[in-house]
Design brief:
- The protein is mostly helical and 160 residues long.
- The chain has a two-stranded antiparallel sheet with strand order 1-2.
- Helix 2 packs across helix 5 and helix 3 crosses helix 4.
């Protein structure tokens, strides 16, 4: 267990609370839209996001990037292959393994899911004044670094 300097606990607790509230608010706003949340669960959307950036990908790569068990990723991949959102093919380099690739239907579904979650954030962000938006813009790189530190601490890896 690491020892924190005095005064950091309330900041960490408040940051955790803010992240939880943001997540809950985004999830709730998506439920209230015309895009039913259950048509693309968060875990599937996250895999599609990874594939959008890193496609084709091996199951092991997806497992490492999302910090999930191989059986979990395989199950998710089976569901999204069945839905036509990704394709599973033989790896042309190593014919004993397979790779998954995002399909056009997967890109469309991910784009709709992204819009559903982005639109409420755009509206809320626009309600802030210029100085508040500047604070958020300045904090974003630090928040991404914080997430990287949390990943490294929890999983002992840096996936960049």
């Amino acid at each position: 267990m690491s020892v924190r300097p005095a005064g950091q606990e309330p900041d960490a607790r408040m940051l955790t609370e803010a992240v939880i509230r943001l997540h809950r608010a985004l999830r709730s706003s998506a439920i209230r839209t015309d895009y039913p949340r259950e048509t693309l669960p968060m875990a599937q959307a996250e895999l599609l996001q990874v594939l959008e950036e890193h496609s084709p990908a091996h199951i092991g790569d997806l497992t490492a990037r999302r910090h999930l068990a191989p059986s979990t990723v395989s199950g998710l991949i089976s569901r999204i292959v069945g839905a036509g959102l990704v394709e599973r093919d033989v790896d042309p380099v190593n014919r004993r393994s397979s790779v998954v690739t995002l399909t056009a239907a997967g890109r469309e579904k991910l784009a709709a899911w992204t819009r559903t979650h982005k639109d409420p954030m755009d509206t809320a962000y626009a309600a802030l004044d210029d100085s508040e938006r500047a604070v958020i813009a300045e904090a974003l790189p630090v928040l991404f670094r914080l997430a990287e530190h949390l990943d490294e601490e929890a999983y002992g890896t840096d996936l960049g």
